[in-house]
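Workshop exercise sheet. Pairs work together: one partner reads the sequence aloud, the other fills in the structure field after running the prediction. Swap roles for the next sheet.
Pair: D.N. / O.F.
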Amino acid sequence: MPGFIHSVIHPAVYHGHRKQSPFFEGWYYKLVSADGTDRVAIIPAVILGEDGHAFIQILDGNQARMGYHPFSLTDFKAAKERFEVQIAENFFDLSGFSLNLDSNAGLASGTIQITDLTPWPVTLASPGVMGWYAWVPAMECYHGVLSFDHKLSGTLTLNDRVVDFNGGRGYLEKDWGASFPEGYVWMQTNHFLQQGVSLMASVAVIPWRRSAFPGFIIGLWQGGRLWRFATYTGAKLETLEITEDYVLIGVQNRRRRLQLQADRVKGVALRGPTKANMGLRVDESLAGTVAIRLSTLGGEVLFEGTGMHAGLEVVQPERLLHWIKGERK
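Structure field:
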């Protein structure tokens, strides 16, 4: 199955050429202006099913506004060998994107260029953020980190204002599969006082063989090194606390411990995929902070810092906490 192998080791490409419902696939461009005052997420995607359609979803963190622009499936086109997606008159790839949107959901236009990408390393044994799970053909949701951190240039017009992203920083990831997890936490930031630091962390309920288990993936890119903590690496989840004010995650492996604390600020309701439609409510903020402490098990601090302009999603946390409590009985 050369097509399957190619898609596994190239997570950026579109995986849905031969898929049937239920299936979704979407790319997530996060943009932060040079002065940090503007934070925007652009999400081009497609969902197959009874209400099958392509769409572009825009989160304007500065204005606390979401715009959902739907399109016919015939407006969606994707290359087979590389990440190159077109939705009507809108174009997306690893070098950036261009928008030409004018609908009831608002106006969005302009071009953004991306340079100096920092992807999660891909090898045959561990093809990206999913590790060896990427080779399992029946996972409900797959994830890819296409760039921890990169440079931005260009401008966007969002409704009645022009947003300048020249000199800004960006992040790029994607998800695909049958549906989002039934409960999860996700956080991301690449704005630290120290240059070259970026974090992506997710804890979720993972369906598996007619049951489920809580799994997690955390990558801390720091000084050109990836500190990886994940269920598939044998790391353990020590702590997960979710309150109205913060999310606390603690993990450890045989040598190191990582502690994350994200503050919860008011977000915007995005639409997320279920097996039936885009009916999942995803509350996301782009204005929080994440405090990080990486240490040895003996207590030596290897890195400590606070990331700004953090993305945070908390979806049905009671289900996630239910599974974690069940695992620990």
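Discussion prompt: The longest helix spans residues 317-327. What would you look at next?
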